[in-house]
Task: structure prediction
Amino acid sequence: MIYGGPAAGTMGGVLGLTNEGRVPCRLAGWPVLAALGAPGRPIAVRTLGVFGGPALASPPVVTIRPGAQAVAVVTAADAPGPGLASCPPPYRRLRVTPPGSSHSTVISAWIPQAGVYLPACYRVSISPVIARSLLPYLPPASAK
Result:
């Protein structure tokens, strides 16, 4: 994750999808996301149309230049879900597959600005891929 933190009962972060090729690529849709718990078993992840806005009729098409990034936002509830007295251990890793791809990458579920791993309390959601420029609060792409 390249950025993240808490907000109103949720914890989340921004995933960066970098074009490591030599030609521009186009993405449209939702990444496939599997949150991995301690034993490494994937957990089903639901998708959102858009965070804090109306449902999308279709996701935006994002063109990513070589070396540039597009992003997707991941959120998880940070309080126990229905019928739970406490939260299970947080997710340690996320398996991310870009829309339309069969290649996935496993990344850390560490949320740098919050200093915690993605909570496994209740729901995990992911946005469609969007242009990085739509999230102006992100640090420069070269910052780690």
Remarks:
- The CA atoms of residues 19 and 67 lie 5 Å apart.
- The longest strand covers residues 10-18.
- The mean pLDDT is 80.
